[in-house]
Amino acid sequence: MNERFLSLPEEKRQRIINAGYRVFSQNSYKKSPVGEIASEAGISKSLLFYYFRNKKELYLFLWDEACRVTLEALREERCYDPDSLFEMMERGLNAKVKIMHRYPELTAFVMKAFYEKDPEVSACIQESYAGYIQQKAGVSLSMLNPEEFRPEIDLQMMLNEMYWATEGYLWEKVQSGTLEVESLEQEFHKMMDFWKVVYLKEGE
Predict the structure, then answer these.
(1) Domain range enclosing 184
(2) If pLDDT is split at 50, 70 and 90, which confidence band does 88 have?
């Protein structure tokens, strides 16, 4: 990574990062204007290219930074610690909310980047994601206590359904431009309340 950028004051770095997340999350990679990122960050386009050699380097840095920030938040919220399913999900939601307060467009950027088709960056993103998913905290079948759930429940299918519902919700919000911290918290708590009724044994 370019040491020139890392040597900047934190506030200035965050301003550039947030500008990049916003512009890239609202456009395809090819149609994202670098000049708009620089203008929003309060710097010149030439200065932005002083920190990053080109658009691709900036884009991939923003992706790597999103992964780093996410893993750090997950660790801080103890999302790797085994617990009951919904306690782990609650901690994961807390991590997501903290990230969105500091980087409002990071989640939208990550969703957009994951589905980006431009060959200049898509292969790099998918390769990075394959490695990142190995580190990311997630609920696995081995972490669950079957005694918490209704006996007829297929636990792996349950986890798959929760993952698909979560990803679908985020993608829909990104596409409509309505992904906000408050609505995310409210909607995810509603989903978790629903899943508790559907999957947990009575009284759990």
Answers:
(1) 3-199
(2) confident
